[in-house]
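Two proteins follow. First one:
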Amino acid sequence: MALLIILITCFVIPLATSQTCQTPDDFVAATSPGHVIIGGLFAIHEKMLSSEDYPRRPEIQKCVGFEISIFLQTLAMIHSIEMINNSTLLSGIKLGYEIYDTCTEVTVAMAAALRFLSKFNGSREIVQFNCDYSSYVPRVKAVIGAGYSEITIAVSRMLNLQLMPQVSYESTAEILSDKIRFPSFLRTVPSDFYQTKAMVNLIQKSGWNWIGIIATDDDYGRSALNTFAVQTTANNVCIAFKEVLPAFLSDNTIEVRINETLEKIIAEAQLLDALKNVTFTDEGNSFHFDAHGDMNTGYDVVLWKEIDGHLTITKIAQYDLKNDVFIITDQETKNEFRNLKQIQSKCSKECSPGQMKKTTRSQHICCYECVNCPENHYSNQTDMDHCLLCNNETQWAPVRSTACFEKEVEYLNWNDSFAILLLALSLLGIVFVLAIGIIFTRNLNTPVVKSSGGLLVCYVILLCHFLNFASTGFFIGEPQDFTCKTRQTLFGVSFTLCISCILVKSLKILLAFSFDPKMQNFLKCLYKPIPIIFTCTGIQVVICTIWLIFAAPAVEENVSLPRVILLECEEGSILAFGSMLGYIAILAFICFIFAFKGRKLPANYNEAKFITFGMLIYFIAWITFVPIYATTFGKYLPAVEIIVILISNYGILCCTFFPKCYVILYKQETNTKSAFLKMIYSYSSHSASSLATSHVSLDSTSSNLAGTNPNAGGKPAAWQESKDLQAQAFAHTGRENATSTSKILPRKRISSI
């Protein structure tokens, strides 16, 4: 204690009574001779008085503000050197020291560094400047210090001239790890890079993202501030404010920092290399310098707490530089460390899964609003910067979703109520077809069946209707390549065959009841039933074959809908699809024209009129189909075509066969040969009278032009001819097996019917 009081008196009292201007000797804090001199730089005084002279004179001013903690560090260095000298560690070699008070001022430290570089056994005031310092022997072999990074950086640049080892106990500036600029610098504390890294790690573990920074206005503070700002930004931590304070402030509450200095000094010739390879242990922990000259120590995480007006400092964890983790020793400190998370230090509330951060107009990324993820986007973590996009082809997500969901595959299913209704209508149509077939088979020899073209033609037409109804089943269920190709082809060919047969019937009816000789000759040349049917149907077969070869319908997954995958048949070629339907429409139109011309047939043989109605129903259905099919979207698109097929098929079936079935079942008295011939005779005689009247008009016009001699009681010759024709027609009714009749009465055509 007496020694401590004497040293304090030596450091404080002379400096307090000295003149304002100081010499380098005034800053020698302690010195001791020896074979090997170790320099020391300690900021025993807090600052230097500013000069009141103006302009300022180039002189070193007086230092004020005694720092007891730094003074204790100075004593620790002296004590370590004395222990080495009193031991057998360096036998025959005595260590000396020369310690300077830097007064926390770069200028004073530079003056001391110049003395360190002076030649051994020479004047301390003279420094030699050489090109090569390989053989130069300085008075001081190594330097301990300084504490502040700003002073250390300045001194180290000078000591680099002679590669004099410099070991700092407190300078942590990251730039000092650069061995290109500071090759002889070593330190026993970690770089600020790890300090700021540990701070950011602690902030993250505590769940904070809204912090402020206070740094000192020196190389140490500015470098740490820049490094810390970069690391916080990389970890999504926002800096609310930055405050830079003057570098040197008195703070008597700072915990005493005592550095353990060198414990082994080896031969001076290889001092720097030896220092780099020094390894020592303390309390079971091994310490050494790394390639950057930094010591592999860590940090203590301390918690400042005010309890009953008293400030207490508690160590709650250690930071491991190598593994980048916090080491907690006991449960009590673990709870303290965990309680840090309860401290709220955020600009905005965290966004829950299903939301994303939307930055406000503030300059800080940590100030944001939470907005819901839009449709087909999701977020599965808190505070996500953006929502993740689902795979739109196979997945979907509702608003504010935390995950993506697989899309359901949709098509017109067999279990769908609308599909069941359509199937029921198709089955009902098939039942009608079978019932009509049975009725016609049981009444094969009746005039109604014979007048329909015979059983073969009726069977072909009924078969076509059966296939049309059956084709609707291929539009329902999960689409397959086979069903996609079959459904349109089956419908197209069978419907074309049906229309072709009806076309032949219309042509036959028109031929049978045509009394115009020119039209009769034309229809006779045109009427070739089998070639017409094969040709008309064959063209449709060619169209469908080309369609299947070059652009066949195929299954397609429509992923444009937001929540479902629509499994549908892609027609392959709209042109081919339109050509198939257009060709059927052309045949139907021709059939309509022929049937319309034969609409004024006998009342009980009114098939042409019903064919006309059937074709009208077909046209109405398919003209309506085009705009509806073009604008309908979804799984019910095939149902649109099913409905049109059913309407057109039912229309033609009902108009073609239902009237005949009605006659067969409920008008049996008209379904006899005699009744049929009588009906035909009545129609033919009426047509003959009309034709005779037309001839009479022409003959009368000719007689008037030739100047015929009228007589009051006489009748025109043409009128007499007409009467003769009617008489002959009546005579024909009484003679069923007559072999000749008037030329105007077409008996040959009637018998063919």
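Second one, unrelated to the first:
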Amino acid sequence: MFALSELAPLNQHQNRSKLLKPWWEVFTDYLVVLMLLASVLACTEQLSRDRLVCIPLDPPQTANRSSRCPAADAASPAPSSELHGFAAAPDPRGRRTHLVYQQYVYVSQACYHRALPLCPRFFPYVALLLSLVLVASGSFWLHFPHTSSRVEQFLAVLAKCCESPWTSRALSRAARQESPGDEREEGTAPALHARRSSLDPGSQGPLSERSNGTSSSSAVPPSPVPSSRNSSVSSSSLGSRGNLPPARASVLVDGPRQEISLGRSDGEEARALFERLRKLRAHCENSAVIYKVYLAQTVFKVLLVTLIMSHTVPLLSSFTFNHTCHPEERPLVGYAAFECIHVLSSLLRKLLMAFLTLLGLHGLLSLYTLSWILHSSLRRYSFHSAKDLRSMRDVPDLRNDLAFLIHMLDQYDPLLVQRLSVFLSPVSESRLLEESLERRWGEEQLRGLTSADADGRSTLRLVALPRLPPALFTLGQLHVLKLELIAEARFTAQVANMAALRELHLHHCTPAVDPTALAVLQERLEVLQLTFGQASEVPGWVLSLRGLHELHLSGRLGGEGGVGRSWALGSLRQLRHLRVLVIRGLLQRIPAELCEVAGSLTRLEICNEGTRLLVLTGLKRVADLTELQLRDCRLERLPSALPALTRLRTLDLQRNNLRTLEELLSLAHLRRLSCLRLGYNRVLALPPGVAVLRGLELLDLSNNRLQSLPPALFTLRRLRRLLLAGNLLEELPAEVGALRLLTELDLGGNRLEGLPPDLFGGCAELRVLSVARNSLTSIPGGVAALTGLSRLDLRGNCLRELPSELGCCSGLHGGGLLVESWLLLSLPPPARNLLSHSYTPSAAETPPRPESDSFPFFCPTQWSFSSALESRI
């Protein structure tokens, strides 16, 4: 897509370049035009009328005789014919040359090239050539390949900035802030700032119609920037402008003054201009090519004018009327000397003097330009005129080529610079974004995006906004706020209106917080989740939230300077009520700062993403922990600091490199330990020392390398959940029946060929049994004794038939039995009808099961065994 303004004719783009020409450049252009006219006139006259007229000079004797002739003729008496009254022919006077016409032509041409100096002959051509050089050098910096693209982009952006409705609105607001007294005086007669709709083809843009913040009757001349829109005003548009009542319908009234209603398309165009000018600034401020080319062009003109003046002024004496010629072809003409006159000598002399006068003025202006360049800091520009307005004091200073272009523009019209400064002001951009957010993200839109989580709390998620919409702080019933990729978020004092806010998620978002808002967050915020790339992105106010209960940190917290630099955040001393700390980063040691919250911290989770956790002695300082999770820390042994955590209830060491569990004996002091998760490690054998953990209720050893189970495991009488999936077990000991309280047993992905009958007789409380992906050939009798069994997974085995007593397990009715569909045919019809839906369970009813490297998981539709032999294979 492209704008129609890009198809504008070339002359329009050429006319824009006059905005970068100061008064001396314009005056110089006119001087060059006059010099060009003078040189063209001289060339025309010389080509059409320039020649020499020559007559021979008499020899000395002839000259003496002829000199005496007048006196002798005067003394001689009159002829007799005159005395008698007859009219006789007068005697010829002057000199007789005895030359024919061709000889005169020859002599004139020969003397033109020999007797006439070079300056009268070639002055018109040299003047024409010099004028053309000055014409080319006068605008060379605008057409140089390395500068023309930047100049064209700057002029295009300038035209858009002057046309944008946001420019007039920002300047009007700035003017009202500068003159508050004038606003009070005009309270009874508010000024009308109405803008035509962008859909009206006959309306004028703000480029040709400048709004005045204090008076609506004074007419301001239009901007000289060529507009890409149609600036012609039709009779219908004039009529609609004069009709005031209809125009009031499209004006937003704000207090005693009416402001321009900025449409959605105008707002998007203004934001695009901010981004376009930002890119242009980054492109033009990295070098000073335009400045250097303009300086070289000015120096060249000064040197050229100096050289021409120094060589031409002494040649003025060569423009004479009379010339003496001595042709070498005397045998042809019969005379040795001729006296010649130059017909255009007087005219050429006057044209030369006029040309030198214009050239001298051109040189003086070039010297003035050179002194202005050398004495002014043209590679840096400060918006003095814009900074006179209090609302524009944040306009940054510019450098290099962009600063030079604005210097040139300031010499043409400072008002254009002021209009351009609107799109360089961060305050102006901030106000535009606020208005855009208010229009697109109002209170109704935000309430429509609010949803309820699993706990019934209202949750709002905002992603990739330029900043927080003001309407957000009006949501008093919001509990959870999630902000993602919001670059310039800020919590103001209005956050006090969000009375129900308790949880805040910041994903790659670093908001600023006002002091008043910080006091509110310190009092109300309980849960904070931070996701960041580097620790430097974590806001400093996070560690001052003294009312925080849970803190989740996800990002690179470890340093690159060794173990001593593994915690990049500050002190946690102010987090006196912190109970849960979740860290997902690249730590190398347990942070020593945890001792500052040891009195309140009860849950610590560290997911190290595969980075080795080298030093764990810091765990001894948080002895009040009840839940500890160390995942992906590449631990090879149980941490030696665990016996100090006497209040520990849950220990999660999944996804590490544990090979042996001999240190389980050291956990005998952890009498409150009820949950131990050691899945996804490399444990080869379970030691008998596991019997010391008598309070265990959940033991997870899934996805290890266990080949057998020790009898000591079945002495844990309180064990309720035993997860052994994804191992290398070939036999399940009969002692499993001693686990009277066992409710869940997961043996999937092993090598079991049979199940002990004591499993069904002793584990009467069993509700979930998974033996999928094994080598079972039959199910022993007694399964009907498990009256509470609600889920049985038999998929991926070598079963030939199913026991008919499965129909007596009422908990399996309606989808509790997971088995291949063809095995259901081995059941009696009544039991088959009760369990008919068991082979098509829904995804919501089927919990995810751990995978095994030896026995991968397959869905039921992938198992289509037609015989027991194929099943065994």
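SUMMARY FIELD: Residues 386 and 545 are 41 Å apart (CA to CA). The first strand starts at residue 52 and ends at 56.
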